[in-house]
Specification:
The chain is mainly α. The protein has helices spanning about 10-15, 40-50, 70-80, 95-100, 110-130, 140-165, 195, 205-220, 235-250, 260-280, 285-290, 320-325, 330-335, 345, 375-385, 400-405, 415-425, 435-445, 465-480, 485-490, 525-530; strands at about 5, 30-35, 85, 305-310, 340, 410-415, 495-500, 515. It has a two-stranded antiparallel ribbon with strand order 1-2. Strands 3-5 form a two-stranded antiparallel sheet. Strands 4-6 form a two-stranded antiparallel ribbon. Helix 6 (about 140-165) runs parallel beside helix 9 and helix 8 (about 205-220) packs antiparallel against helix 9. It is globular.
Length: about 550
């Protein structure tokens, strides 16, 4: 029988092993033969799968954390310590990540990252395989070059995220001497199903040198001269942004070797290229506080470089980002759980910084909060708790109809991140620390401080690399709260996280304190994979579950 494939539903059908993620799938209904599947269908299937409810295969079991890339961002955000539950923990479907419970390989939540990323990698591989036949690209037309460049960019992004999640980084809680320096198995277009059953974790250096950077170089070359038609299509600015992320990750802040200086130099260079090539500008105060379009609409601002779209017809009522994060929405998950900001982090925000209005102050009259709800004042004062976020709004401000309000765009890169990368990387280039401090000063004063009589100045906090990095990361944590960006930085920089302290606004079971990086930032590979891939059976990251006891007064 002729094998047939479907791309849009691949994420839901992929099983737990790597082997199954590289074989063709025989779906039921709504299919096309392999010859009929166009390159456009293959490519468009990737972002569709990234926001698909049930992409890890658990939505049918009622696991409301199973909605793809936005869910992964929310899981990582729950692990930082900066996000707290201000309402009922009974509505928190991401409590495992927030309390460090049930994160070992035997638990279902492990598949959220493992199953999905390898499914998406397989989809990118299919595009690459269909276009880049035997490495001969001389006869490709402009459309084929664009599709191939985008496929390489997707694959690079997926491996970059995976290696940052699964690389075991030393911490004070768990030991992993046999897995230090290891990333994840590499699956390429020519990887056979049988290979996937004995595919070891590749070294981190090899993944960067043999996959991530070569893929990004290919994407850069292929997309040169190409202009993306919208913010949902990958173009050269996004590739530059990925290179900035990757090079920043490769620089070691404490070594200051020639290789590290080179990595930081490249990170700063590509961050600036992303800023220039995108033509994007940081969010304005009106855009940030927009009650209808705040952090849900790629076309309502000039900040977002690349985003995922969730069409209204694809919205599942409890399986989307808005349902868990937008506290003004119809969803009890969002309003009852009330995801908010760590009180200590909130108190560190200058009152002249408009970003502070993203969370409800205990004194609701401090700011003139804007709401999409007709009963917004009452909702904010009587329904939502102190420090609850109003950063993320229901799409179109529709807090009643989940099909409309849930169809929110999901930001995957905005230009502000490039300003932060440029400043941090510049600080590590010998002699340029004062320049880096001025970059941060300029960003804050030009884009975030609203009092013309006040000037933010971090000069006194930029006497050393360490003190400057602490200040930069404070502002970055405020800037990207809830967006799934900062956990990678905290892991990279060996930062501490703390929800347990006198006066904390965090529920008791979430009050985890870590000196240095948290052990749960080293993600654990799912049991299904270790059972099916013998090469990694004895090379999994240690289970961090329950290793840190909640702080008590």
């Amino acid at each position: 029988m002729k094998k047939i494939i479907t791309i849009i539903t691949a994420a839901a059908l992929c099983t737990l092993s790597l082997g199954s993620c590289i074989k063709e799938i025989e779906p039921s209904g709504g299919t096309a033969t392999e010859k009929q599947v166009t390159l456009e269908t293959l490519l468009r299937g990737i972002p569709a799968a990234m926001v698909k409810a049930g992409s890890a295969g658990y939505s049918g079991q009622g696991a409301a954390w199973d909605f793809g890339y936005p869910a992964i961002h929310l899981a990582m955000e729950s692990m930082t310590g900066d996000l707290v539950i201000t309402g009922s923990i009974g509505y928190d479907w991401f409590n495992q990540w927030g309390t460090n419970e049930a994160l070992g390989g035997d638990y279902a939540v492990c598949v959220l990252t493992w199953n999905t990323f390898y499914t998406w990698i397989d989809m990118a591989n299919q595009v690459i395989k269909k276009i880049n036949v035997n490495g001969d690209m001389t006869g490709l037309d402009a459309t084929q070059r664009a599709y191939l460049g985008q496929a390489y960019a997707y694959r690079a992004m997926f491996y970059l995220d995976l290696v940052r999640m699964y690389e075991f980084r030393p911490n004070t809680v768990t030991d992993g001497p046999n897995v230090e320096g290891l990333g994840v198995p590499i699956v390429l277009p020519d990887t056979k199903e049988s290979d996937g059953k004995n595919n070891p974790r590749a070294k981190v250096d090899d993944i960067y040198n043999n996959v991530i950077f070569p893929d990004l170089d290919m994407a850069e070359a292929l997309l040169s001269g190409y202009t993306a038609p919208d913010k949902y299509t990958i173009g050269l600015p996004f590739v530059y942004g990925l290179k900035a992320r990757a090079w920043l990750e490769r620089g070691k802040p404490t070594d200051n070797s020639e290789d590290d200086v080179e990595a930081f130099t490249y990170a700063a260079e590509y961050a600036r290229k992303a800023i220039s090539a995108s033509g994007c500008t940081p969010l304005t105060r009106d855009e940030w506080e927009d009650p209808s379009n705040g952090f849900n609409n790629a076309n309502s601002n000039n900040s977002w470089i690349w985003a995922l779209a969730l069409p209204s017809e694809s919205v599942a009522p409890l399986f989307c980002f808005t349902a868990h994060m937008a506290a003004e929405s119809w969803s009890a998950y969002a309003s009852e759980v009330g995801r908010g900001i760590n009180k200590n982090l909130y108190n560190s925000i200058d009152s002249r910084d408009f970003r502070k209005r993203s969370w409800l102050d205990p004194n609701r009259s401090v700011y003139n909060y804007r709401s999409c709800r007709k009963d917004g004042d009452e909702w904010f004062t009587e329904r939502l708790k102190d420090y609850c976020n109003i950063k993320f709004r229901p799409a179109q401000g529709n807090y009643i109809d989940f099909m409309v309000g849930g169809a929110a765009d999901h930001c995957c890169m905005r230009v502000e991140e490039m300003y932060f990368i440029e400043a941090e990387a510049t600080a590590h280039i010998p002699g340029r620390l004062p320049e880096a401090a001025q970059m941060l000063n300029n960003f804050m004063n030009n884009y975030r401080i609203i009092d013309a009589n006040y000037k933010y100045d971090c000069t006194n906090r930029a006497r050393t690399i360490e003190t400057f990095t602490n200040e930069l990361m404070l502002q970055k944590r405020i800037e990207f709260w809830g967006e799934g960006i900062v956990m990678f930085d905290m892991k990279r920089l060996n930062m501490s996280s703390r929800r347990g302290y006198v006066g904390t606004n965090s529920p008791a079971s979430y009050r985890l304190n870590c000196d240095g990086r948290a052990p749960y930032w080293n993600f654990v590979i799912s049991r299904g994979e270790t059972q099916n891939n013998t090469a990694i059976e004895d090379y999994n990251n240690p289970d961090p579950s329950g290793k840190i006891k909640p702080w008590t007064e």
